[in-house]
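Students often ask what a holo structure prediction actually looks like on paper. The answer is less mysterious than it sounds. You provide the chain, you provide the ligand, and the output is a string of discrete structure tokens encoding the 3D arrangement of the protein together with nicotinamide-adenine-dinucleotide.
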Amino acid sequence: MTKIVVLGSNGFIGKHLTRTLAEDPNNNIVAFDGFKEYRQGQAEPFSDLQNVDIYLGDFLNTDDLDGALHSADYVFHLISTTTPASSDKDPLIDIDTNIKGSVELFNICLKNKVKKIIFPSSGGTVYGDSPTGFNKEDDLAIPYSPYGIGKLAIEYYLGYFKRTHGLDYIVYRLSNPYGPGQNIYGKQGVIPIFLNKILNNEELTIYGNGEMVRDYIYIDDAVNMISRTFRADTQHNTYNIGSGKGESVNQIVEILKQTTGQVINTTHVKTPLSYVEKSVLNTERFINEFGIGPETTLEAGIKETWNYIKSNYTS
Ligand SMILES: NC(=O)c1ccc[n+]([C@@H]2O[C@H](COP(=O)([O-])OP(=O)(O)OC[C@H]3O[C@@H](n4cnc5c(N)ncnc54)[C@H](O)[C@@H]3O)[C@@H](O)[C@H]2O)c1
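The corresponding structure tokens follow.
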């Protein structure tokens, strides 16, 4: 059996990834999270899956991490205490929690002789506003937000731990994953947030003139690309994962209009200064090496997400 620890398994990406990893009966998965909803009385997560054990723990508690990582082969680090929006409010939070906690985690990985750590970084924020807006892994990365700065710092620490202690790792710089199960009330994920507002006949709040461009990838595609490649002896340590295409917020709103068939009202506010104008990922490195890529069109992925939100949130 291969023991895989998924830190942040109750989050949007973590839930999908845990379920996908559990499809292989040779994987024994430890699903680590604070599991807030479960602690508040909701049903036990993953109780339908025989090869998943949940571990209620705090990422910022080294004893919890040490307990979960005992004899682990692979560790997915999917925990973040901030989002790009929340990190702006206090730049110290990323240093005190995400960066410090990640370095503590890497020490615990060494102690437990973990084979490889897998870290989904943020393809949308680490590069900053590059001249082309179409970013390759080796491009100069100048993140604007404390969230992006924190992600890049964690990547650098992974490089340090590999160089000095031989801890193997892979970084997936993810663009903007979206899909069923994403937090509709959150501060990250414009597609589900907007769909929920449309469901409730509420106005959509758009930053600037709506021409901000992002790269969107359907969650199943992102998880498929990660779960099929993380064990490989890879040529590089860092890979972009995205659709390789850019859509403006205005284009997204147009697709939402067609998908939902509803009238959409919008209001415009100033774009936060830490947001980049255009971010699209060049995914040639990943596709050339592994021969797989995203399969879901934006229209099909948005339709799936809309159907999910309608059936789960309509009273
Ligand atoms: N969603 C995106 O658009 C996106 C894009 C690129 C990278 N990422 C990164 O991928 C990772 C997962 O993203 P997500 O969208 O699934 O996030 P999420 O917020 O849905 O999930 C994060 C999970 O971490 C858990 N968590 C937070 N602090 C904890 C703590 N102290 N102890 C235990 N558990 C704790 C939360 O309970 C939650 O279940 C994050 O690091 C995120 O920054 C996300």
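Residues 179-214+245-313 form a domain with the UDP-galactose 4-epimerase; domain 1 fold (CATH 3.90.25.10).
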